[in-house]
Amino acid sequence: MKEIKGYIFDLDGVIVDTAKYHFVAWSNIARTFDYELTHEDNELLKGVSRVDSLEIILELAGKTLEDDQKKALLIKKNEEYLSLIEGLTKDEMLPGVEDLITEARELGFKIGLGSASKNAEQILVKLGVIDYFETIVDGNGVVNGKPHPEVFLTGAKNLGLHPEECIVFEDSQKGIVAANTGGFGSVGIGNAEELQEADLVISSFEKLTYSVLQTVFIELHNN
Ligand code: B16
Ligand code: MG
């Protein structure tokens, strides 16, 4: 990386702490076929589309369903998820992430969103941050899910930047692989062991500034 010109953010688990609501909604779906979803199972669902998440849960439960039954469960899951996030506010944003975005905008960087969620826009509206994003690439606009880099490559293209000019912020292992495969700088938010492929792992955005990223991605990298 020679120069940082843009940031691309994942949504769930990076901008906002919605993973817990996905977990509740999926747990209730899994219980309808007597499977108790664990937190470990839930890790496998991070960054994965709704349709693929159901397939993973069915496989874990050793259950097969007809297509129309799956469709009904997908609708039910999303209805419950949407009711759980009904009252979502800025308070549930990850601490420090808005400051990092504000600083980046002041520096003239381009900001994009790269998420597997089909609910991304309405979540950004609820949080009152949709205007920060020059491009929103989400589950409605991509063919290949993470770990394929399509969501981030499309984001960079829409921002008019090359992948090597952008840093991707991700909380899922699949998302980090997508960022690395696409040629982006990658920052993992969460557990260093789970996200060990990331160029940098942080447990929180608090105290993360452009100057820290500049040191890690430009100065250390080129020395
Ligand atoms: P939806 P991200 C992903 O969002 C979540 O991590 C994943 O758990 C969820 O299944 C997926 O979005 C689809 O979400 O049901 O809202 O379309 O982390 O890529 O922002
Ligand atoms: Mg995520």
At the fourth level of CATH, the homologous superfamily of the largest domain is HAD superfamily/HAD-like
Bound molecules: 1,6-di-O-phosphono-beta-D-glucopyranose, magnesium ion
Please give the domain count.
2
Radius of gyration: 17 Å
| Termini separation | 12 Å
Spell out the helices and strands N to C. EHHHHHEHEHEHEEH
Shape: globular
CATH topology of the largest domain: Rossmann fold
CATH architectural name of the largest domain? 3-Layer(aba) Sandwich
Q: Explain this structure to me?
A:
The chain has helices at residues 19-31, 39-45, 50-61, 67-84, 97-106, 120-127, 150-159, 173-182, 210-222; strands at residues 6-9, 110-114, 135-137, 166-170, 185-189, 200-202. With 223 residues, it is an alpha/beta fold. It folds into two domains: 6-17 and 90-222, HAD superfamily/HAD-like (Rossmann fold), CATH 3.40.50.1000; 19-84, DNA polymerase, domain 1 (Orthogonal Bundle), CATH 1.10.150.240. Helix 8 links the parallel strand 4 (166-170) and strand 5 (185-189). The longest helix is centred in the middle third of the chain and has 18 residues, at 67-84.
